[in-house]
What does this fold into?
Amino acid sequence: MMNAAIKLSELLDMVMDVLNDQFYGEEYYIIAETSDIKNYPERSYCFVTLVEKEGSKILAKADAVIWSKSYHIISDFEFTSGVKFERNILLLLKVTVDYSPVFGLKLQINGIDASFTLGNIELQRRQILNDLVSKYPSLVKEIEGGLVTINKRLVRPVIFKRIAVISAPGSDGLLDFRHELEHNPREYRYVIKEYLCQIQGNNAEEYILQQMRIVKSVKPAYDALVVVRGGGSQLDFGPFDTLDLGVEIAGFPIPVITGIGHERNVSIADMVAHLSLKTPTKAANFLLEHNRKAEEDIEQLASFVLLRSRQRFVNEDVRIGMMEERISTSVRKYFNSHLNKLDRMQLTVHLLNPGNILARGFAMVKKADRILNDSSTIKPGDTLEIVMSDAIIGTTVNQKSTKE
Amino acid sequence: MKTNLTYQKALDELNKIVAEIDSETIPLDQLSEKIQRAGELLEFCRHKLRETEEAFEKGLKKIEE
It folds into this structure.
């Protein structure tokens, strides 16, 4: 044994030679999961532990490194996939195998395939969606490529006043949201109740569900439940892409508004909630805008009522005026009509006045003091009196000829 | 003037008077009485209208404060 002893470095050099023969410069595409990451952004390098797991059993493990010349692939990946580069993500990596006697075997990562990860996440999300639709048909339906849920179909209150907010303690998103609502230009006052819990990490889903159940039980009921996080776009969804949370939101009795912000994707929570907005600020603006429109509608109604009422007064005034006119016209007509009657009567009386008749040349004929209407009692030789307008003539009849 | 006279009742009565005058069913002797009554009713209506309008505008000012 002692003769064959060599230095460690010599042995490892041999190992290195063998490995280099096989692997030097060869690029491989591997699928592996990140299990630990030590990132040094100031130095532009990152150490990653990669594993392959079956359930909880680790089948393979390797140390990997991203050197400065490839460091940009991390931000490229995050940008393209919208996923944060962190542990427990399945990745498709372009690697080369490096071995050095000092540092051992390391995989050098030169590329990360964003679309693989994205596709994977999309796949998982799709599966959860399918679960939702098939297992909870009373809560979620897929119609024409879109989702319809109980929560989406809730009728919005006339105004939003009492708001429950679920967020992480100290979250920038929560601060932004509150600020927007508490300093709004129209001075609307909102009652905001915070329900704080961890919204990322392993048990976040359960914490959020817990808070939601509390919110649900509060009476009188809130006008809306708003879920916010971050101060801007986030890179992955964590608990918001889970089945149980999706179920709870889909069937929640109060409109759920999400402002959990994401670079480019939409989580399950966003898809089943009443309304999903990109950022907490936008969520606040929605609430403001809704109330503003309600105020506008009320003011319009008030204006209308005012206008109509004033119009009514004018109309009634006119009506009274017209009534007055009618009376005056009618009275005049009455008088005219009666005056006419009187005039006619006067004329008739005038005409029928015997004196006037005589004056027109007619004469009355009397015999023995009786006025005669006809000549039946007149014989020649009779004495008659002819009464004229100015005299009475005594006369004797000479002859009589009757009209045919 | 009857105490339970309303704007609407006054208008109705005025309409009736006008109809009577128009149809000349009123004897002349009662005409001046009717005309006087009409005058009272018109006065009443005008007054009621003005009163209501004032109350309305006053109520409005209160709301706007």
Summary: DSSP finds two helices and no strands in chain B. The mean pLDDT of chain B is 88. Residues 13 and 33 of chain B are 14 Å apart (CA to CA). Chain B touches chain A through 21 residues (CB under 8 Å).
